[in-house]
């Protein structure tokens, strides 16, 4: 996305990867990930985009090297920086190039990379932290209309050059030091995850006291100090970023001698939230063994094929463990899901997934599920229960079809 974005702003961009298949695919004009609008952007600016597995090739054409490699969690939950270090190691000494870190790295990584560069006599290379804030599924719009651009550096030419690249977007610019830029990224993700776990806990209380969390979130969100975004209660946040970054920040704090209690609760609430649906089903259906449940959606959010950290993984595993027959449909993520959950029964469409189901659970709010005709669903199901795991459905339409609607935290709507 970064490559396509900068090409769309007029830059020549060289994309380097060690994965030859990925580079070949991109040369053929295919995007290796599902991201709406990205293939079109790549095609539109193909003349300015060069794909190669050869780093020296790219170094001839470009001065700013944006590092966009994965930093998955290790077994300890800390970020695995092996790929970042491979990139740093592969850089030749130079006075005219800069490493610009887009990958999400723990606070302190920039300082340690600068130290490594000094030790290896490569301190002519500049280092800039430029964290990424775009969301999967809306990456194109997020790149072109960022809320802010954050640049952390020691005040040299490279930070100015990165700022110039982003200038046409007209976004507020935060120029700061490397450590603060690294921390902004982790703190932003951790705060968003906290917002979600908070509203999920409010939802759970709403169920106890007969309130509707959708109304509560609306009333809260109109307070400008709170804001309406990321207050959608559901079956927990997923994705590689929140799960990884919240844990990485918690451990970063721990490693530096500070116990970040709030984040422990955020993580725990999220884990329990994925499992709460199982008790909802038990309440409606009693013993679950032998029951048939349809899952609508498997990806961690709509408009992506990403299954990393998806709530569906935990939910499906729990249902299978209870002896449930789980039939699922996802319009895009099925291939990825099959690799992680080969034991699920995959249906080619939503209506085929709900066939003979005792209960249907909306797991990912793909537009095609939100807009489904619930009368068609009702005709095919053998049971009546519809659990709206994202509070995205029109509960009235579900009920009018003769089905029983239950959302998350919608105590007042249950009747
Ligand atoms: C997140 C951040 O939003 C981006 O700013 C950041 O750049 C990115 O991580 C990253 O670090 O790379 P992303 O994981 O793509 O983006 O998706 P989000 O839209 O943030 O959704 C994450 C999860 O939270 C999804 O499972 C979504 O369903 C859930 N969510 C979101 C809720 O449960 N409730 C909400 O109100 C919002």
Roughly how many Å is the radius of gyration?
A: 23 Å
* Helix share bin: 40-55%
Q: Which residues form runs of ≥5 with pLDDT under 50?
A: none
Bound molecules: uridine-5'-diphosphate-glucuronic acid
The coarse silhouette is globular
Strand order across the largest sheet: 10-9-8-11-12-13
Q: Based on the structure, what is the oligomeric state of the protein chains?
A: single chain
Beta fraction: 5-15%
- State the helix count: 18
Main sheet?
A: 6 strands, parallel
Indicate the structural class.
alpha/beta
The tally of beta strands, per DSSP, is 13
Terminal Cα span: 46 Å
What are its keywords?
single chain; 415 residues; alpha/beta; 6-stranded parallel beta sheet; 3-stranded parallel beta sheet; 18 helices; 12% strand; globular; binds uridine-5'-diphosphate-glucuronic acid
Describe the structure.
With 415 residues, the chain is of the alpha/beta class. It has helices spanning 2-8, 20-27, 38-44, 55-61, 82-90, 109-119, 139-144, 157-166, 178-209, 213-221, 240-255, 261-285, 311-321, 334-340, 350-353, 367-370, 374-380, 395-400; strands at residues 13-16, 49-52, 64-67, 98-101, 126-129, 149-152, 173-176, 292-296, 325-329, 345-346, 359-362, 385-388, 404-406. The longest helix is centred in the middle third of the chain and has 32 residues, at 178-209. A six-stranded parallel β-sheet has the order 10-9-8-11-12-13. It is built from 18 helices and 13 strands. Helix content is 45%, strand content 12%. Helix 9 (178-209) packs parallel to helix 12 and helix 11 (240-255) packs across helix 12. Residues 104, 132-136, 189, 192, 196, 230-232, 234, 237-239, 241-242, 245, 300-301 line the site of uridine-5'-diphosphate-glucuronic acid.
